[in-house]
Amino acid sequence: MIKMFHAFVNDESGATAIEYGLIAALVALVGVVAFTALGDTIADTFVQLATVLCTSADGTYAAGACTF
């Protein structure tokens, strides 16, 4: 019984899986925070790009659509 308890205490085979799980969770959290912080900036950039492309083709960009 003592040998089994000693083997159980010294067993670290599940520690690696837990560490990888924690690293994956941390990477996912950083990704969510980064995308949330940059979300409006990226959306504004695409609106500016769409406006430039539409006006360069002699159109008017309004309400998410280009009209000629």
Describe the structure in your own words.
This protein is mostly helical. Helices cover 75% and strands 9% of the residues. The chain contains two helices and two strands, in the order ααββ. Strands 1-2 form a two-stranded antiparallel sheet. A hairpin with a 2-residue loop joins β1 (60-62) and β2 (65-67). The relative contact order is 0.06. The model has no long low-confidence stretch (mean pLDDT 87).
SSE-based structural type: mainly alpha
Count of DSSP-assigned helices: 2
Characterize the biggest β-sheet: 2 strands, antiparallel
Report the strand count.
2
Q: What amount of the residues lies in strands? A: 5-15%
The percent range for helix content is: over 70%
Backbone CA Rg: 27 Å
**Mean of residue pLDDT values:** 87
Termini gap: 84 Å
- For the largest beta sheet, what order do the strands appear in spatially? 1-2
Poorly predicted regions are none
- How would you spell out the order of helices and strands? HHEE
The gross shape turns out to be rod-shaped
Layout of helices and strands, plus pairs?
Blueprint: H1 2-10, H2 15-56, E1 60-62, E2 65-67
Antiparallel strand pairs: 1-2
